[in-house]
Amino acid sequence: MKIMMKAPAKINLTLDVLHKRADGYHEVEMIMTTVDLADRIELEPLAKDEIKIISHNRFVPDDKRNLAYQAAMLLKERYSIRSGVAIGIEKVIPVAAGLAGGSSDAAATLKGLNRMWNLGLSLDELAALGSEIGSDVSFCVYGGTALAKGRGEKIQHLPSPPNCWVVLAKPTIGVSTAEVYKNLKIDGLRHPDTKAMMTAIQTKDYQKMCANLGNVLESVTLKLYPEVAQIKEQMERFGADAVLMSGSGPTVFGLIQHDSRMHRVCNGLRGFCDQVYAVRLLGEGIPVD
Ligand code: ATP
After folding, report:
1. Which residues pair with 134 in a beta bridge?
2. Residue of the nearest CA to atom 23 in ligand 1?
3. Is residue 97 in contact with ligand 1, taking CB distance under 6 Å?
4. Does the CB atom of residue 135 touch ligand 1 within 6 A?
5. 132 Cα to the center of ligand 1, angstroms
6. Contact call for residues 96 and 60 (beta carbons, < 8 A)
7. Does ligand 1 come within 6 angstroms of the Cβ of 9?
């Protein structure tokens, strides 16, 4: 029995870093929401007791560095599973882009193998396991819209934001999240107003959502990679209602309500940026499988 799963990307409507913790991690507060741009994960049982990653994307590791591999390994070890699985990853989400592609693949693998191996785990249990793999995996297990705190693993669900187009533009560079955090100076940061963003979402106030986008990591990535700042300017110039970098970047997204303007922004970016996508917000939590 093959299992097919969708692994959607996320964007950050806010990303704040409060302080560096004694354990070396940063204490964060971020509001994330899933968008309709997804990798496709295909899980197939193997007679041999092994985990095999099949991906035709040269940027995706096919060994234990792959987060989907780590998800399968974690379940195998924790629940003494003796069978194997082939994990096919059809990559649609740009890699190392700030869109949590790897984390979403891991979350989809956890959910799919929960079914394949009849583990009967709840979403909360899968999210707790996910936090052992990476900070964004818990959020990706639930999908939808949420405030994430701690390292990113403490999740408070939110309703769906006011709907709109999301134009994603990824420059050719890949960004290392670790490098961005290493260069972050917490003193003097301009913190986003997370509460105001929560209210904007709860009251479905599109203008307020646009006015409160904020990501403290822009202060690092925009300096390291000036092309990210240029794409932000282009999007604003072509008429996006609001523009922000997602995660540690380099993907920039623009929120846009009107179809005609969405086309204008996409056309304006083509030729300037090779990966441009116009997608919808997925809003509420996605179906479990
Ligand atoms: P985040 O937004 O959670 O910081 P990201 O979108 O910036 O993540 P990913 O696309 O998850 O970054 O990839 C970061 C690195 O992780 C890649 O360079 C790659 O080596 C590794 N990786 C591990 N598993 C995967 C996977 N399933 N898909 C893509 N990259 C993966």
Report:
1. none
2. 66
3. yes
4. no
5. 16
6. no
7. no
Q: Please write the tens of the pLDDT for every residue from 111-150.
A: 999 999 999 999 999 999 999 999 999 999 999 999 999 9
Which candidate, 193, 194, 205, places its Cα nearest to that of 257?
205
Helix and strand element counts for the chain (H, E): 10, 11
3-class SS of residue 185: coil
- Which residue is closest in CA terms to ligand 1's atom 14? 96
For β-strands 252-256 and 3-20, DSSP reports them as unpaired
Which residues face 87 on adjacent strands?
Answer: 43, 53
**Which pTM was predicted?**
0.95
Q: Determine the CATH number of domain 165-280.
A: 3.30.70.890
Determine the distance separating the centroid of ligand 1 and the alpha carbon of 264, expressed in angstroms.
30
Give the CATH class of 3-158.
alpha beta
109 C-beta closer than 6 A to ligand 1: no
Q: Could you give the CA distance from residue 275 to residue 268 in angstroms, rounded to a whole number?
A: 13
Token pair belonging to 258 = 């009107």
Instruction: Name the stretches of the chain with pLDDT < 50.
Output: 286-289
Substitution candidate for ligand 1 out of 5, 40, 60 with most atoms within 8 A of CB: 60
Domain boundaries, the chain: 3-158, 165-280
How is residue 260 written in tokens? 């005609």
